[in-house]
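Something for you to look into today, if you have time. Could you write out one complete protein record for me, on any chain you like? The space below this message is yours for that.
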Amino acid sequence: MDLLLTAAKEYSKLLGKIYQYTLETGVVIQVEFAPGYFHHLLGLQKLTDIPAIIKNPRAYIYRSIINGKIVLEDILKSKYFDEIESRLKHFPQINRLIEFEKIIVDFNPSLIKSKLTKADYILFKRSNDNMFLNLFLMADDANDNKQIPLTFLPEPTGYYIYKQKILKIISMSETLRVATRNKW
């Protein structure tokens, strides 16, 4: 199985659920994953020289990968592949990420000169090979209590957590999302 399909199948295990994290301050945040977020989490939007990626809607890209219409061989042709290679390599650990122990709250991108100005939180954990796996979250405009995945960035040094406010997660639960028409 190719690494791209593996990443999509691991991501599919997160769909249809709402993950609720209770922080040590008593604040509760909810995180929900959807097919349309997958392409950005992997950084596929960076592959501007792959027509199947740039010409199709985001949710279609996820479904095309699951259905075998877009495969690893297709994206390996991109001259920008090296920009997403680490994400792709570490993304199959995404299911470990829901079991976070710590979270950065009120992410301040100016502390590290980051362009991720929309991020509110970062869930992070060490990978099997000791990389920092960072899942950036931003507020869902439609629901104040919900956060949606913004991007996923593996990083060897802990750069994104430097000088940030870190809190412990004291509990995590998951519930099935109530289906709504045209959500995905």
Remarks:
- The radius of gyration is 16 Å.
- Residues 3-172 form one domain.
- The helical segments are 3-12, 38-42, 51-54, 58-66, 72-76, 85-90, 94-97.
